[in-house]
Each structure stands twice: as structure tokens, then as C-alpha cells.
Specification:
The chain has 96 residues and is an alpha+beta fold. It contains 3 helices and 3 strands. The protein has a 3-stranded antiparallel β-sheet with strand order 1-3-2. Strand 2 and strand 3 form a beta hairpin. Helix 1 packs across helix 2 and helix 2 crosses helix 3. The mean pLDDT is 77.
């Protein structure tokens, strides 16, 4: 099932929602969603941070990490860059 999900994401340009993949495979979302959780835990797919608007809750757009890598690799340990005290006050809101 995980390979089918990765294959469907590849056919959709490398990204898509769980609901779109479930519809393409002819499965119910409740049968597909646990596989997305497993793939995310294995770091084979990741959340793009984008959402697709629907009638209910916004849907997470997943991306296949084997096809796409971030331009700037991030470890998750990044700290905000300190801003010098002599900068204008509006500039301090940009923190990172």
C-alpha cells in the first residue's frame, strides 16, 4: 500500500493530499491515512506546509521526498538570528 501511495504521488507531480490519493486508488481515506503516517515517520514523504481548501478542514499537501529535496537543508535545530538593537522597530518583527 505504501508503494502505491508513493506511485500516486509521483503521478501527481510529486505532491497531493491523502484524499486525492485515496480517490485515485479507489480506497477509503481511513484505510489510506495510516500509511501516510508511516511514510511520514520514515521520512519518505513530508508536509509541504501548504493546505488545500475544502468544505471541511483544509487538507495537508504531502510531498514525495525522494523526488524533491529542500533547497536549504534544515535540521530543525536552527535558532533565530539575533537582531542588533540599533535596527528600526519594524525590522525586529522579521526575527528569523
Amino acid at each position: 500500500m505504501r508503494r502505491l501511495i508513493l506511485h500516486q504521488l509521483a503521478q501527481r507531480g510529486g505532491c497531493g493530499t491523502a484524499r486525492e490519493v485515496a480517490a485515485a486508488l479507489g480506497k477509503e481515506l481511513k484505510h489510506i491515512w495510516p500509511r501516510f503516517t508511516e511514510l511520514a515517520a520514515q521520512r519518505q514523504i513530508s508536509d509541504t506546509g501548504l493546505r488545500r481548501a475544502t468544505n471541511g478542514r483544509p487538507q495537508v499537501i504531502w510531498i514525495d521526498r525522494s523526488r524533491f529535496t529542500p533547497a536549504i537543508p534544515r535540521t530543525g535545530n536552527e535558532q533565530p538570528t539575533p537582531i542588533p538593537p540599533n535596527e528600526p522597530s519594524w525590522f525586529k518583527n522579521f526575527g528569523l
